[in-house]
Design goal:
It contains six helices and 13 strands. The protein has about 300 residues and is α+β, with helices and mostly antiparallel strands.
């Protein structure tokens, strides 16, 4: 479980790991795993890296935190990483893509798409021992969502330390636009189908997300409250993948349909041709660079 933010300056190791991830995002060139820069297995240090880079984004890009994402809700991936709980990352306003929008070429390094149930809170969740009833009372409505995960780490060669430090491998997110109250939705029983250009590429159910999206939300709310940074009214919560993630190629178009919630869509621009080799490190097709290696290969979930 993450520890509350320290009042002390971040350690040299934390700064070095944060710098490596920042540089990878800036240049479009993935970096080696950052776990070697941090104390072995130190999850608290990894969350310190995450907090430092989120703070940098708020200061340098003028963005703001609009919610949280939950990762590692799949038992298979938890076993692969040797952990028994999920992780989380921050959602920033400039990570949001409109429903049906297009992600520009070069915006991400090694993107993959997964479909999720998003919850939007209407009340704070400040208590450290949250129940499902607390979450049900606090949620204003649910939406279908696509999370576009990404890794600044070369070839998705990640451990738990790496993905936590890398903001839980966050990239972008897309929310549907037809809110549904939880009183009208069985979140555990929803069925999801994700298509690419009309072809089915991923399926799943609400039960595939930690036994149900509300279970994931209870874990997140309790964890953040214990760390002194509780969920607040207005926050968006991406509760975790309903089915296997799918690697993105330039020009792809995805649509997720979730029973009871509707649909949500996103497209990816075709790769831009570079007129000067190496002159456009931020663009081009990077989706094949290690996209099927590491714990996050197609068929896994974050």
């Amino acid at each position: 479980m993450p520890t509350p933010p320290s009042a002390d300056r971040p350690s040299a190791a934390v700064v070095k790991a944060a710098d490596a991830l920042t540089e990878a995002a800036r240049t479009g060139v993935p970096c080696p795993p950052v776990r070697s820069l941090l104390p072995d297995g130190d999850i608290a240090a990894a969350y310190d890296v995450q907090r430092l880079n989120v703070a940098r984004a708020l200061e340098q890009r003028g963005s703001r935190v609009v919610g949280r994402k939950i990762g590692l809700t799949s038992p298979a991936v938890q076993r692969q990483l040797g952990v028994d709980q999920p992780d989380f990352g921050a959602l920033l306003a400039d990570m949001a893509v409109p429903d049906g929008g297009t992600v520009p070429a070069g915006r991400l390094l090694q993107p993959k798409v997964e479909a999720e149930v998003a919850l939007v809170l209407g009340a704070d969740l400040p208590d450290t021992r949250i129940t499902v009833a607390d979450v049900l009372r606090a949620v204003d409505f649910a939406l279908p969502a696509l999370e576009i995960v990404d890794s600044r780490i070369d070839g998705w060669d990640i451990t738990l330390v790496d993905t936590v430090a890398d903001n839980a491998s966050s990239g972008l997110f897309v929310l549907g636009t037809s809110p549904v109250p939880l009183t009208a939705l069985d979140t555990r029983g929803v069925r999801m189908t994700l298509t690419r250009a009309g072809e089915q590429v991923s399926t799943g159910t609400g039960a595939d997300c930690l036994g149900g999206p509300l279970n994931a939300a209870v874990w997140l709310a309790s964890t953040l409250a214990a760390a002194g940074d509780p969920l607040r009214a207005g926050d968006v919560v991406l509760t975790g993948a309903l089915g296997p993630m799918v690697a993105v190629n330039p020009g792809d178009a995805f649509e997720a349909r979730i029973s009871g919630l509707g649909s949500v869509r996103v497209a990816f621009a075709a790769a831009e041709a570079s007129t000067d080799a190496g002159s456009d490190v931020g663009s081009g097709d990077r989706s094949d660079a290690g996209s099927e290696t590491g714990v996050s290969s197609e068929g896994d979930r974050l």
